[in-house]
């Protein structure tokens, strides 16, 4: 079988390990041949591809980024896309199947290609934020949590030295998993996530409680968190007419609000892109390698439209539809479990 | 409720995070009072304990080791032990329940104390090696894998520079999980685990295959691995009359055997105790904190004889008997999955 | 002798190691007694102090932050300050000498206290930015460079995956040492420092050259860098009427300018406070410990007004005046040495 | 000019950064052409070389090991060596000069090639152990110290948990720099180096003193340390007839001796090869890059027989003879400075 692989969407530690796992398994066990599409769906649409063999994937388990490049191109948007063109590109190049490694958008596109175009696609879930349903975790998330936690550890000592409140903004546009885990790991005094809006009064109550115990408050906030009443933010002139923070992100918005209400000097730090680049953690390397291996197994058994996923300690095959049916949000019992440690 | 906590057996990153999680939850939600027994069961038997409060556990999520100390004392061995003495010690000190954090030995003792003495004990599984059944993973294992993987990454560059074979011995007396995961993460060319004895011929075949591809072989071996025929080892005089390696461990035994058979300069490195000390990974901090919280919940609901465990993404309550009924060995399908990458 | 220690100014990894080195040497060799002033000069002015003994400094070599706390209080400003009050506070508490650990402001104040008030002060240089003259390096700088370099390593893989230009803003208000060293270590394609203003044309030329070679440009910029003509920036509306960047710092200013001129998607990341908190590097622990030891030696020999400093591999005693006489800027030959690697 | 580069002797983090620095400077500024000899002097003798250009050295500043490979071949030993053959190989391949990156043996050979054969060689000092004179530090040392320090940090928590004495064996065959710096950084209670033999009584006195203060002793020992009377060791049967430890190294020898005399459970850990492989620290990357750049400058100015070295903050050109004239041992005042912290 000749299999094309693509990586799509934002960078994520472990992408290369998936590619390596797939190529090594396919090459050695099934005698598959591989090509890599360059820059995600763009390479598919444009027929831009490179051969992938055993030698190409050498040492990739520990290499961050993706050797194939990535983009946010969607095969159903713009010119040249759509199932017909993709099938034609595959036919011309003798490609039997595709392994699409990506997030919600990529997997939805993959599913439509299968459903609407009968194209042979296997999905591999990729999400720093851990926002995909139908998989316990995906690769990249553990690395992101580790990096955010190390940052919190460092910021904490400075908070204590200066009796400051530190607001640490981590990734998580729609779900709060990175904030929840890095906050628990780093011993945060408040964790603010998109799923659970809070009032500025509640946040300041936690902050003041910490100060009253003689400590320096550390608040971890997902980029997608919002206050439960935006009037507060508006009255502070921190939000523009479109409800977006005027300066930077939510961390930059909260810091002056907390400082004004509590009198505690407050500083925001945005961890940013370092959460999604560089050497993957061992956990993510193992998971990504296993997902790559399983994706080739799924292709071998022609389970088009399926996605590989982690369930407990096992890698399983599920329907892409299961993964794209809804967000994997932080459930209340997980947030409440962590909230015991707040304040 | 007044609850005593003890940590027993070998050191493991996350012990302090369990203690912290338990104390914070019990103190804030249930109004529990806590004491810590010093040096495991020894402190129980001798009534050696210290009060544990919110202040004591400050900052513990990221601190390696155990503030309570540990030992390998077994409450059923030696003088002073047994259920009666322990119940008496608890009565004298007004202790209602115990949380015992430990491995197979500790949990078995805990179970006997419940079964034979009617003592109120909750177990928390602790195992660097990941050898306990009834929990997907336990804390400490992820940190150990991460440290071993970093070591493999470092050793690999030296192997390549000198065209050497590197044999990396990691922990795992009875099960090969650390070797399996760190070997997959580090891109090892052979992984040798207790569950799957191999012949020296097979090992050398992998090693030579790597060399023939122009690369430097990296072999990861669990300390508990043994060759499938010990004659080989005996004829090499590497084993003594009791079948133990004469010099150091299995890594030191294999290096000269591989060098002699393949002609490739071979060096063994034993990662050793650094796998079980120091700052826990974020993964282990989160897991340990959650287990500590759940242990107090289990005490609150008086589920004596139960153990907290990880199932998928959830922390659940199981019977200690389930955890101590058998080793959590690496199943064949997991080893075979990894073996595709060998050679 | 009874010696008071204070830490002043921004946080810096190694502060605690200085305290530990001083206390252990003084306690063991000279029989000194120590107190720590809390929150820098504020503690001196207010007589807020805690005893420091062998037990207090246990484990401090690897602990970030400062157990004494810090502030930006200046003894010559506000009420209650000035040499007379400080001498009175010392007399009342029986303090014979002070060790002041801080940057330019603290050392200048220390020098005035000696010169104008005849107060017994020894200085220890503290600067993340490495901007103090009269010492080869000071503690904290190596840790900051290491953290910035790790961040650059991570950001680079994302840059390559997305064919982006990454602008990394590091600390360095007046001098470019952190940018120079982390940029060299991380293989940056341009390094922008306060000492060497550049035109936006030159920066874009470097960036385009990198792109033309098929790579993703990485630009490291000190927070204190400015373009050599501010008209550029003004015309771009990135600067306000006071010549300050409108949004965030210089990185946020450069990113859209580079993107507009080169057509390469550009993203800024601000490393921020994580550069100055947390566990010090081994290099900084050794240096800080040695400086602490030497400060007590200088007190013992009553070299008031002197400062401990690193010269080559040796710790020496210099005049505080030498350190505060001018900034330790990046010399041209060092910048030009690095510039060979640009583009 | 056409310049050949070789790396020789044991692996050392930063070798690749030297190569990169040299090639980029030579290529861009002087229009030099480069080849790399494979596996050190062996490649020189055998004429085994590969072209090195800008593309080859991409990303090398952060890559451990050496892309050229290394060996312990000496050009003055065995067949094929000697100045005449090397000059002939250079003439045949049109090579004008050589940059030899290596330790004492390599630099001595380089010097003889210049002195006896009039060959154009520039030396770059490479030593994990920091045992070369005429340079303040060389690359690789800082990384080794950092790795050893991280290991000590991890081992310490286990020591405390189990009230054990931990003996940590680090590299340093003839000089104790790694032990001295990692021991100071890690807060060791005794540091044992080749330059300062100690009696087992003195060592146990330090160990017992630590125990009496309620702490767990950590002893850092260079592999080349020896007790000041070997009778002790002999009577313990730890040494064989050739005065070499019977089992493993000095750490394995000391552990049972300390345990027997003090009654404190004692464990040895050998950090081993992980000290010399993998990603270099930022410090080492900067230093190595600068040395590579300076080596090409020295070639350009035809300073044959010279070596690049670090003096304070500057890279200078010295005579190879200065570097090979004697070991860079730990001076007494540095050991005594650290010894204040023992016990």
UniProtKB/TrEMBL annotation, chains A, B, C, D:
<dbReference type="GO" id="GO:0006002">
    <property type="term" value="P:fructose 6-phosphate metabolic process"/>
</dbReference>
<keyword id="KW-0808">Transferase</keyword>
<dbReference type="InterPro" id="IPR000023">
    <property type="entry name" value="Phosphofructokinase_dom"/>
</dbReference>
<feature type="binding site">
    <location>
        <begin position="72"/>
        <end position="73"/>
    </location>
    <ligand>
        <name>ATP</name>
    </ligand>
</feature>
<dbReference type="GO" id="GO:0003872">
    <property type="term" value="F:6-phosphofructokinase activity"/>
</dbReference>
<dbReference type="GO" id="GO:0070095">
    <property type="term" value="F:fructose-6-phosphate binding"/>
</dbReference>
<dbReference type="InterPro" id="IPR015912">
    <property type="entry name" value="Phosphofructokinase_CS"/>
</dbReference>
<keyword id="KW-0418">Kinase</keyword>
<dbReference type="GO" id="GO:0016208">
    <property type="term" value="F:AMP binding"/>
</dbReference>
<feature type="binding site">
    <location>
        <position position="104"/>
    </location>
    <ligand>
        <name>Mg(2+)</name>
    </ligand>
</feature>
<dbReference type="GO" id="GO:0048029">
    <property type="term" value="F:monosaccharide binding"/>
</dbReference>
<keyword id="KW-0460">Magnesium</keyword>
<feature type="binding site" description="in other chain">
    <location>
        <begin position="171"/>
        <end position="173"/>
    </location>
    <ligand>
        <name>substrate</name>
    </ligand>
</feature>
<feature type="binding site">
    <location>
        <position position="267"/>
    </location>
    <ligand>
        <name>substrate</name>
    </ligand>
</feature>
<feature type="binding site">
    <location>
        <position position="10"/>
    </location>
    <ligand>
        <name>ATP</name>
    </ligand>
</feature>
<keyword id="KW-0479">Metal-binding</keyword>
<feature type="active site" description="Proton acceptor">
    <location>
        <position position="129"/>
    </location>
</feature>
<feature type="binding site">
    <location>
        <position position="164"/>
    </location>
    <ligand>
        <name>substrate</name>
    </ligand>
</feature>
<dbReference type="GO" id="GO:0042802">
    <property type="term" value="F:identical protein binding"/>
</dbReference>
<feature type="binding site">
    <location>
        <begin position="103"/>
        <end position="106"/>
    </location>
    <ligand>
        <name>ATP</name>
    </ligand>
</feature>
<comment type="subunit">
    <text>Homodimer or homotetramer.</text>
</comment>
<keyword id="KW-0963">Cytoplasm</keyword>
<comment type="similarity">
    <text>Belongs to the phosphofructokinase type A (PFKA) family. Mixed-substrate PFK group III subfamily.</text>
</comment>
<keyword id="KW-0324">Glycolysis</keyword>
<dbReference type="InterPro" id="IPR012829">
    <property type="entry name" value="Phosphofructokinase_III"/>
</dbReference>
<dbReference type="InterPro" id="IPR035966">
    <property type="entry name" value="PKF_sf"/>
</dbReference>
<dbReference type="GO" id="GO:0030388">
    <property type="term" value="P:fructose 1,6-bisphosphate metabolic process"/>
</dbReference>
<protein>
    <recommendedName>
        <fullName>ATP-dependent 6-phosphofructokinase</fullName>
        <ecNumber>2.7.1.11</ecNumber>
    </recommendedName>
</protein>
<dbReference type="GO" id="GO:0005945">
    <property type="term" value="C:6-phosphofructokinase complex"/>
</dbReference>
<dbReference type="GO" id="GO:0005524">
    <property type="term" value="F:ATP binding"/>
</dbReference>
<dbReference type="GO" id="GO:0046872">
    <property type="term" value="F:metal ion binding"/>
</dbReference>
<dbReference type="InterPro" id="IPR022953">
    <property type="entry name" value="ATP_PFK"/>
</dbReference>
<comment type="function">
    <text>Catalyzes the phosphorylation of D-fructose 6-phosphate to fructose 1,6-bisphosphate by ATP, the first committing step of glycolysis.</text>
</comment>
<feature type="binding site" description="in other chain">
    <location>
        <position position="223"/>
    </location>
    <ligand>
        <name>substrate</name>
    </ligand>
</feature>
<dbReference type="GO" id="GO:0061621">
    <property type="term" value="P:canonical glycolysis"/>
</dbReference>
<keyword id="KW-0547">Nucleotide-binding</keyword>
<dbReference type="InterPro" id="IPR012003">
    <property type="entry name" value="ATP_PFK_prok-type"/>
</dbReference>
<feature type="domain" description="Phosphofructokinase">
    <location>
        <begin position="2"/>
        <end position="298"/>
    </location>
</feature>
<feature type="binding site" description="in other chain">
    <location>
        <begin position="273"/>
        <end position="276"/>
    </location>
    <ligand>
        <name>substrate</name>
    </ligand>
</feature>
<comment type="pathway">
    <text>Carbohydrate degradation; glycolysis; D-glyceraldehyde 3-phosphate and glycerone phosphate from D-glucose: step 3/4.</text>
</comment>
<dbReference type="Pfam" id="PF00365">
    <property type="entry name" value="PFK"/>
</dbReference>
<feature type="binding site" description="in other chain">
    <location>
        <begin position="127"/>
        <end position="129"/>
    </location>
    <ligand>
        <name>substrate</name>
    </ligand>
</feature>
């Amino acid at each position: 079988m000749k299999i094309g692989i693509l990586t799509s969407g934002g960078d994520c530690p472990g992408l290369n390990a998936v590619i390596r796992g797939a190529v090594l398994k396919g090459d050695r066990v099934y005698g598959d041949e591989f090509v890599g599409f360059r820059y995600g769906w763009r390479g598919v649409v444009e027929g831009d591809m490179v051969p992938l063999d055993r030698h190409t994937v050498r040492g990739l388990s520990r290499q961050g980024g993706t050797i194939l490049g990535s983009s946010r191109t969607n095969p159903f948007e713009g010119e040249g896309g759509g199932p017909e063109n993709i099938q034609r590109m595959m036919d011309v190049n003798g490609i039997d199947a595709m392994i699409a490694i990506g997030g919600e958008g990529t997997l939805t596109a993959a599913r439509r290609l299968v459903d609407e175009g009968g194209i042979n696609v296997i999905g591999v879930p990729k999400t720093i934020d851990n926002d995909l349903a139908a998989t316990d975790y995906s690769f990249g998330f553990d690395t992101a949590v580790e990096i955010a936690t190390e940052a919190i550890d460092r910021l904490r000592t400075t908070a204590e030295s200066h009796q400051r409140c530190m607001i640490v903004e981590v990734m998580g546009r729609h779900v709060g998993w990175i904030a929840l885990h890095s906050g628990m790991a780093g011993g945060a005094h408040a964790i603010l996530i998109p799923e659970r809006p809070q009032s500025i009064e509640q946040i300041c109550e936690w902050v003041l409680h910490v100060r009253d115990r003689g400590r320096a408050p550390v608040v971890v906030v997902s980029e997608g968190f919002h206050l439960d009443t935006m009037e507060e933010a508006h009255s502070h002139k921190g939000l523009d007419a479109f409800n977006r923070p005027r300066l930077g992100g939510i961390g930059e918005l909260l810091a002056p609000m907390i400082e004004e209400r509590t009198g505690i000097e407050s500083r925001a730090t945005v961890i940013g892109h370092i959460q999604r680049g560089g050497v993957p953690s061992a956990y993510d390397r193992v998971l990504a390698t296993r997902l790559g291996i399983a994706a080739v197994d799924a292709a071998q058994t022609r389970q088009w439209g399926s996605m590989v996923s982690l369930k407990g300690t096992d890698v399983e095959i599920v329907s892409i539809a299961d993964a794209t049916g809804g967000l994997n949000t932080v459930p209340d019992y997980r947030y409440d479990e962590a909230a015991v440690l707040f304040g």
